[in-house]
Amino acid sequence: MNAAYSRPAGRFVYRVRDDVWEWDDDVYRIHGFEPGSIEPTTELIHASKHPEDLERVKVVLAGASRDGGSFAVAYRLRRADGTERQVVLIGYGDPGGPEVEVVEGYYIDLTKDFAAQIREETHRAVAASAEARATIEQAKGVLMMAYGVSADGAFAMLEWWSRNHNVKVRDLAARLMASTQSQPIVKGLHLSLDKLLFDLTSRWSVTGGDDR
């Protein structure tokens, strides 16, 4: 078996009356088989579906085989080596007479697209989480300075307001920081901080502290 294949799509033909499937080389590879190494059967095709998706796919294929018309169904495909792929099966049941004789279409392997989407969503979630944590830490710092409480005490204050006013902690922290950028929390607090910083750095310089 060869797990690699050049194209993520392959063509199939299903002859309804004879219950015969025909695959091109790429459909074999999507299923994890060397081209021509096995005979595709309805039983094999059903076995390759994820159990949670099987009935849904069977209903779609049965409808196309009975009534004709176009269809598209996405599902999880289990390959011969046990790995799982995300595929979509699209096709058309051709009513060449009173009954549908042929159903044909394509297997399209979307696994890479799904993986890329998951990676992107994970990246966004991690970035958003990091940003939220940073904002919460900043808000804690503001409360620690304004109220003279510890980091745990500042977070407890945020949690109290969050719980009693039905606002998420991260949203409350973001609103608090946005407000502090436009106006001081306590009138004259920034002047007091300037004086404190001046006094601290002056004493540090006199005692010969690190000049970094």
TrEMBL record:
Q: Which residues cross the membrane?
A: none
Q: Which residue numbers delimit the ANTAR domain?
A: 116-177
Organism domain of life: Bacteria
Q: Name one GO molecular function term.
A: RNA binding
Q: What is this protein called?
A: Antitermination regulator
| Record organism | Nocardioides silvaticus
